Amino acid sequence: MFPDIRATSTRIKLAAITGISAIALIAAGCSGDDSGSSTPSTNHDTTSTSASAATRTDFNSADVTFLEMMYPHHAQAVEMAKLVPTRSQNQQVVALAQAIEQAQAPEMQQITTLLVSFGEPAPSQDGHGGGHGSMPGMMMPEQMTALELASGPAFDKKWLDMMIEHHQGAVTMSNTELAEGVNPDARTLAQAIVAAQQTEIDQMRTMLTQL
């Protein structure tokens, strides 16, 4: 009887040791999985932080405000320009609309690049400045609806009147940037907007007299 008891005791000890080893291996495996899953998360957080960090400091709040407001302002001008081909038969209006779209769409990309380099969020068409009312020359939704419903000479006159007002607003915002901003790239953009859009304002006033 005693030999059987000792053998049984030995088997119990071996089973216990085997069980403990298995538990240790499982725990080690879980630990390895946790460390593996935490690494991508850490890398992701680092990437997100670095992407939003400013890469330059040569700007002030006036530069940021100018860019944040000019982006949706340009977006609306592009939207207005896209209405022309299907509503106007006036080739001067069609050509001007195409020129406005070709000039302002690349400037929107430039604005995005500048804001991101300042550590600011990429701009949106709604802007960050409290809506259309805070941006000079910005058309209200009902004005845009009325423009969309027009066609022919009536559309041409409405479009030219609205685009003149829109351009004047852009010139006003650009002059504010030139008076208060410090970033050289933002100021260069403002200068380009004033020069180009003032010329187009004069052109559109002449076109109105020919309708």
From TrEMBL:
<protein>
    <submittedName>
        <fullName>DUF305 domain-containing protein</fullName>
    </submittedName>
</protein>
<feature type="region of interest" description="Disordered">
    <location>
        <begin position="32"/>
        <end position="54"/>
    </location>
</feature>
<dbReference type="InterPro" id="IPR005183">
    <property type="entry name" value="DUF305_CopM-like"/>
</dbReference>
<dbReference type="Pfam" id="PF03713">
    <property type="entry name" value="DUF305"/>
</dbReference>
<feature type="domain" description="DUF305">
    <location>
        <begin position="63"/>
        <end position="208"/>
    </location>
</feature>
<dbReference type="InterPro" id="IPR012347">
    <property type="entry name" value="Ferritin-like"/>
</dbReference>
